[in-house]
Amino acid sequence: MKQPIIIDADPGIDDAAAISIALNHPNFDLRMITTINGNVGIEKTTANTLKLKQFFASDVPVHRGASQPLVSDIVDASQVHGESGMDGYPFPKVNEKDLASTHAVEAMRKALISSEIPITLIPIGPLTNIALLLSTYPEVKDYIKEIVLMGGSAGRGNVTPLAEFNIYCDSEAAQIVFNSGLPLTMVGLDVARSSTLSHAFVNKLPTLNETGDMLHQLFKHYKGDDFEKGINVYDAYTVLYLLHPEKFNVQEADVQIETNGTFTKGATVTDFKSRFPNCSVVLSIHPDTFEDMFVNALKYCK
């Protein structure tokens, strides 16, 4: 049976890889994509999602979500992803009519409560939309199978010494989600840093298919941390984890979010010795295994 999923995203170059797989892999039933302010502003993340929808001629609905964090000031990562958020590939101009009119939070609520089987939420941007959903409509928790999110780190951060970007962008929202009581998996910086894609590997992607060529052109403009060594496609780890969880090293932990610290705001404080874990933390995967999984998943794309 296909896994029903909802992706909440802020494309973003690595988001493009995750969305490409989710839209095309036969094991997934992608019910919708919701957008969030993050890597760039909400207008651009929404436009970028529509570009991917159009690229794959998909009928999966796209719903625009929150334009700013719950409390914090807006920050972005345009220095990493480019001014548009997905610089590097000549996508045609999008048709705004492809954007659904219902707000992301309302759309998720409707999809969840009307689904015959629980849906997995895959947030790969800041957690504002998910926090708003759980706070406004707590009854939807009964219809959520689990949350598999990209964010956080059991070690060092990437936007500050201790904070990962998605959590830092809206740490108050993250604290709500991590304490929601739902089954939660944190796919953070640790696993991506354990299996960075080499530039030599990325340069072979155009030979795979049109999607490989598109991602290759995007990756050439992606200036993430460790760029000298290779490319970390952080968001893609979420969908690949769902496809092959047995291939990853995972540990249970209690994860709390620092919301007030002058130097530690957005830190995911990870206690692997807690007797009361609230989260599964994905820590590592063998680099060769990840490369094989990534290529095999992309083969389902055009």
From TrEMBL:
Its EC number is 3.2.2.-. The lineage of its organism: Bacteria, Bacillati, Bacillota, Bacilli, Bacillales. It comes from the Bacteria. GO terms for cellular component: cytosol. NCBIfam families: PRK10768.1 (NF008036). Residues 5-291 form the Inosine/uridine-preferring nucleoside hydrolase domain. It is an enzyme of class 3 (hydrolase). The gene is rihC. Gene3D superfamilies: Ribonucleoside hydrolase-like. This is Ribonucleoside hydrolase RihC.
